[in-house]
Amino acid sequence: MSVAFRREGDDEHKEPEFELPIPVGPNLVTNAGLKAIRAMVRKLEAEIAAQSDADAVKRLKRDLRYWNTQAATAEIAPEPAEDEVGIGSRVTVRVNGKKRRFTIVGHDEADPAKHKLAFTAPLARAVMGAAAGDFVAFADEEDAVEVVGVE
């Protein structure tokens, strides 16, 4: 007998839906990051309340579980020492002769296109704790990155 005659429905052939992955380690955020997380929770709750499609509600609830977890585990990152790179710092560096400027933020705020790097990104990790004028190792090269400025 053909498989088509034995199936109860199409659901058995769908790809399984998994939870959104939670980044490993502490959920350090900036004040703006915490506000954005809370805003996302409110937005998703409103979308769920307004949605009538069961599949859409299921996807929205999965997203809401992720954002509720992020809201519950968020820790405001401690302020770095003055002139020292830390979470929330806007950093100017020179790498291979080119200047780059970025802000170090939490996972959910990260957006490299907007020059926001997660504190776990390799370049962000390399400069954390450094001060203007310091040279730090990066990509297995000693003194590969010069910290030009910290705000």
From TrEMBL:
Pfam families xrefs: GreA_GreB
Residue ranges of domain Transcription elongation factor GreA/GreB C-terminal in the record: 82-139
InterPro entries assigned to the protein according to its UniProt record, in alphabetical order: GreA/GreB_C_sf, Tscrpt_elong_fac_GreA/B_C, Tscrpt_elong_fac_GreA/B_fam
Stored PANTHER family: TRANSCRIPTION ELONGATION FACTOR GREA, TRANSCRIPTION ELONGATION FACTOR GREB
UniProt name for this protein: Transcription elongation GreA/GreB family factor
Domain of life: Bacteria
